[in-house]
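U., I forgot to send this yesterday:
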Amino acid sequence: MPDLQKIAAQLESSDSKDRLLALTSLREVAPEDAVPLIKKVLNDEILPVRSMAVFALGIKPTAECFPLLIDLLAGDPDYGIRADAAGALGYLNDIRAFEHLVRAFYEDTNWLVRFSAAVSLGNLQDIRAKELLMEALDSDEVILQQAAIAALGEIKAVESVDKILNFAASEDWLIRQRIAEALGNFGTEKSISALKFLAKDLHPQVKEAAQISLQRLGQN
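Result:
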């Protein structure tokens, strides 16, 4: 069991490497013991320390974590921290985050925050996110399209299959991989047919993702 007093002292160190190491060592610590320590560096002057602290709130859930993350998502001046908060809310898997993530997706001007919000909406697996994610497919940002495809699969929005398949011939192999992964959530004739096509893809990771999805659907 990690020494909590030693970790607390490390978090007070003037060396940011010590503070990062202290946060890493909280992995083995129970959430109720970890969160008071995480809060010590939530406003750290060094961005990677803050970033790791915000992420840690998502994987050490206590009643305090949700409001802390919501405040960071809504009001932090640093877009990286807002994106971290959006991502951590996905790990918390608290359905109360839904409206906050939707607002961040529509109102935040930074693509990274919008990307994290879309990914976390997929983690929440709430079908209410369907319209927003379908709109995200029309984004000019390829990374947002990738996040939307993955999330539509996670929320099992079967009505999105046709729109997802519009990207099947994309030159971006990551898009094709996300499609292959997402289609594993839909046991429709059209998605199975598309997976058989993607299982012959020239890129090994697309091919493997399609084969795994076919196995999930009992089509191996």
